[in-house]
Each structure stands twice: as C-alpha cells, then as structure tokens.
Amino acid sequence: MSRYALLLEYDGSEFNGWQRQSGGPTIQASVEKALRTFTRQKHLQVTGSGRTDAGVHARGQVAHFECETLPDDAFQRLVKALNGLLPPTVAVRATAQVQENFHARYDARLRRYHYYVSTEPLALERNRRLVIYPPPDFERMNRACALLIGNQHFGAFCRTRSATVNRICSIRRAQWEPEAHSGCWRFVVEADRFLHGMVRALVGTLLEIGRGKRSVQDMKRILATQDRRESGVAAPAYGLVLEHVTYDTPIFGGDN
Asked: Is 53 one of the catalytic residues?
C-alpha cells in the first residue's frame, strides 16, 4: 500500500461542501468516485486538509488517499485521468507520493483563506465576489483585523451548533488588500486552524465595523464574550476561497 496526495481546485457552487454526506453532491464523494474508477479499488477513501462548507471554493485544497501502489505509468497518468473522470467544476492540479504517515489535515501547519469583495457592480464575477455598496472603510477594518492576531479563543466566530470543543486558534495574518481591478478587495486570513463558519463570521463582523455599525474596539469585546450571538451575520459562502495549505515539507513544490 502507498499513500498519495492531491492538490485540488474546485467551484463549490453546486456542492454541499467538502464532506461526504447523503442528500447532495460533495467534493469528497466526487473525488473518491473518480479515484475508485481509476484504481479499481472500491473502498478507497479521501481525507482533505479542511472541510469547506457548501458554496465555498478552493484553489489549494490538499487531500490524501491510500491504495495499492500505483505502477509508474499509472501514476504518471493520474492527473489527466482524474480530470477526465471528475465533474468540470473540480480539477486536480498536482499529485505526489507521500510518506505513509502523512495526513492532509493533521500535518497542515497553516491554512490561508481569501474572501473576495467588490465595491462596484460586477457581471462576470458576480458569483465569486460579494458586492458591497457604499464602500466600507477598509482602513478602519484593518485596524480591527490587528486585534485578531495571535493565539485566542474564537468561540464568538464559531457556528453555534458546532461540536468543536477546542476553540483556540492562532491567526498569523489578517488584512484587507486592494486588488488590481478597480473596486476589488480581498480579505486574507491565515491561521493554524479555523472553526466552523469562522472566516465568514469574521468577514461579516468586519464589514459591520467598516460601515460604522460597530466600533473597532468592539472586536475586543466580541472576542471576550466567546458568544456567536455577539458577532456579525456571516458573509455569503460564494466569496470565500481556500487558497493555500502549508506543510513543514513541501509536497508539490513551492512553499506548501
């Protein structure tokens, strides 16, 4: 048996999230189906670095699976074969054979998400960016972002019914950045882990601060309450993208 890693990109619009479940299509189930067809190993399972919610996209999801060792020629054909079997909204960008104890989720050191917004009307990207008008105060929002940095309890930004007990996360980076296209911005947040619904709740709260509905210092108060009812309404899923997952040793080249 050997273990392999996949670098995945997907449009989450038509999926009920990453995790396999009854009642609708998921990314995990789609990838498993393609792999089982290619390898002819019907019990093969895939584990992702994170469980993106329904409607959330990914450019850098990492997953691993274990199967009988693939012959060299089969491994060389893996990317092309999987992309021919997967729906057009899911793509394999790279593959690698990894150590037998590698775990896509537990070995991840950092995860980076981007949330995309626009302060101007959009046509082509209307399902990829949240249009916000009038424009919020991004400088004010970045002052609130500075209060998120470090090792803190983020219970106030965790989905209410989440079963996660440990709600401590270490955010290394959180900031709003302008993009090249006029009116386009992205929220970049990088941490060791994220809670259920955390990024979207952060974005919703920051937008309320940017619109003057809350003060910058309200972020401190919200964090201290550890109560989801105190933070803002979650931003829509379609603006969120899992961009990158970092490991101690690069898997596919680059810095991941």
From this structure: yes
pLDDT in tens, 5-63: 999 999 999 999 999 888 889 999 999 999 999 999 888 999 999 999 999 999 999 99
What is the residue-averaged pLDDT of the chain? Answer: 94
**pTM above threshold 0.70:** yes
**Both tokens of residue 77?**
């054909």
Largest CA distance in the chain: 60
Cis peptide before 134 (omega within 30 of 0): yes
Determine the Cα–Cα distance for residues 191 and 207; give it in Å rounded to an integer: 20
Residue 22 CA to residue 28 CA, distance in Å, equals: 12
Its CATH class, for the domain covering 110-244, is alpha beta
For the CA atoms of 161, 162, 166, 171, what is the dihedral angle to 10 degrees?
-110
Burial of 201 (0-12, 13-18, 19+ CB in 10 A): buried
CATH label, 2-106, candidates 3.40.50.620, 3.30.70.580, 3.40.50.300, 3.60.9.10? 3.30.70.580
Distance of CA 124 to the CA centre of its chain: 22
Q: Could you tell me which of 67, 2, 1, 54 has the C-alpha nearest to residue 28?
A: 54
What are the structural domain ranges in the chain? Answer: 2-106, 110-244
> What whole-number distance in Å separates Cα of residue 52 and Cα of residue 13?
12
Given the residues 11, 53, 107, 218, the one annotated as active site: 53
Write the single-letter amino acid at 172. Answer: R
